[in-house]
């Protein structure tokens, strides 16, 4: 049976990034300030890049990586690669596709005297900077040289694929070798399994994956990296909608001591060939799992379970029983209701009669969305929208959008959509702007144009409305060219860099330097290096984070500044995705709230392992107060979301956090 994470293994993995010395430091206020302001002053950055101290050069490269300014590439390629290889590769990769960068990196990759430890950095950067011909050369060299020299090839293939550069035949050949060659270490195999999953090649690997999983569960290999490999193997099987007819393997998975593996099993095991009641009972044990996220994932996945008709009556009875049990976790019950509707459709009034006051309202609202042709269901949602809380309104409005096709002329529905557009809620504005259909647009162009203009001017400098303003701009584009053009002109006057840059880029105008906020920077900077740890006290227990100001001083300083002001006290984890992340930090509890200002992204070369603490965002430089902790290993998040800490104690608490669990307080320590 697969082994659980051992404490010392987890700690070793999580502390690995701390073995290197700091990049940003308390002495580098000028560099952090120009990054914070997004001015990226060349005189300041050039001083760092020209330093004889490799750590100052690294700090300069971190700043350049956020700038998007490719004019730095020539300077970067003239730095001492052996002293700054990791950061040079990271910066070039973040600056994106470029002929000079790609050629430079490939020359380094081909250097026989270059230390092997640099290869993964180079390959990942090539995947971000290269072109189709670069990929072709890489494939040729992989097969004509010692493939052990290509540690990092799987991530490079994923990066090429993510940019639309593909070669499925050779991808399969390379990834098959990465998964089967005896001298490939298991961490590298895990990267290959990730690449198979993310490049949609799972169907080519089902037999290989099943054979390797059997070896793992028979004890041929062991260790923390096994969990990552199994995570992606199960994801691959799920994507292929396949699971082997092996009951022993089935039970090994459901009995795994690792909750992440049980969560992934809940997703994949629905494709098992169920023969009898015993098989079904084995899956149903996941619904009763002590970890709320395992039971919730099983409740989500069960609607797709592959069972014969002879077992459907039993399944219906078992789900119905759990829906009526008071001790069942509320989120599990809610997801079970959704699965129940999909498996055994009934009218909404009958469902409401059976389960009202037994199931959370948010799940009843979602259940109503499955009946978009029912006037009684529409009336139910409209009534609850009018009397509901702000959070209820956000939930319901998203569902009401789907009723426009059948009830577009309904007066109450139209007024709800228009009032949402005119509201002070960024969520309601965005949902309505994105969801109003073409018929409603065509019949109300003047009214909509007036609303768009008024809302844009009103919230032009409100950071909580960044996404909403973009949605309003999208709606303006659907109206007419004049409305769209005027809206862009209005947005171009925002004092929020993200909004101003968005508009001016569309208008083809130069984007001037950011308007500085010295007071905010002072508040953030004073806390950037003040604390080493943050203890997150939740109703499920406490977990401890090691803060990383050396990689993300602005983010750490902002987090500590907000914590000192008790911003996070009594907030909930508003978003928990089983096996993926727990996310909190939103004062509205809806996923749309923030501190009232944005901070810049601070991407780094760190990776998203289990227990990594990152910043949520709706795009580059839109971070605020929402943060998350990853449950598994997720390379697709790397370099796209700011990492500012790692959980060093209490990962069992992180794994037990359920959606809507409360953050009681956060304690900062030195």
Explain this structure.
With 670 residues, the protein is an alpha+beta fold. It has 35 helices and eight strands. Strands 3-4-6-5-7-2-1-8 form an eight-stranded antiparallel beta sheet. A hairpin with a 3-residue loop joins strand 3 (575-577) and strand 4. Helix 7 (99-109) runs antiparallel to helix 8 and helix 30 (466-479) packs antiparallel against helix 31 (481-491). The two termini are 40 Å apart.
Name the descriptors:
670 residues, Cyclophilin, eight-stranded antiparallel sheet, disordered N terminus
SS-derived structural category? alpha+beta
Number of helices: 35
Strand content: 5-15%
CATH superfamily membership of the domain at 519-669? Cyclophilin-like
Distance between the termini: 40 Å
CATH architecture verdict of the domain at 519-669: Beta Barrel
Secondary structure: helix percent: 55-70%
The radius of gyration is 26 Å
Q: Uncertain spans, ≥5 residues at pLDDT below 50?
A: 1-20
The tally of beta strands, per DSSP, is 8
Apparent shape: globular
Whole-number mean pLDDT: 93
Main sheet overview: 8 strands, antiparallel
Strand order, sheet with most strands: 3-4-6-5-7-2-1-8
Quaternary state, please? single chain
CATH topology of the domain at 519-669: Cyclophilin
Q: What is the top-level CATH class of the domain at 519-669?
A: Mainly Beta
Question: Layout of helices and strands, plus pairs?
Answer:
Layout: H1 7-15, H2 29-37, H3 42-49, H4 54-67, H5 73-76, H6 81-95, H7 99-109, H8 119-129, H9 132-144, H10 153-162, H11 168-180, H12 186-198, H13 206-217, H14 224-239, H15 247-254, H16 259-268, H17 277-284, H18 292-301, H19 312-323, H20 330-343, H21 348-355, H22 361-368, H23 375-387, H24 390-400, H25 404-407, H26 411-421, H27 426-435, H28 438-443, H29 445-458, H30 466-479, H31 481-491, H32 497-507, H33 518-528, E1 533-538, E2 541-547, H34 553-564, E3 575-577, E4 581-584, E5 612-615, E6 627-630, E7 643-649, H35 651-656, E8 663-669
Antiparallel strand pairs: 1-2, 1-8, 2-7, 3-4, 4-6, 5-6, 5-7
Helix pairs in contact: 3-4, 4-6, 6-8, 7-8, 8-10, 10-12, 11-12, 12-14, 13-14, 14-16, 16-18, 18-20, 19-20, 20-22, 22-24, 23-24, 24-27, 26-27, 27-30, 29-30, 29-31, 30-31, 31-32, 33-34
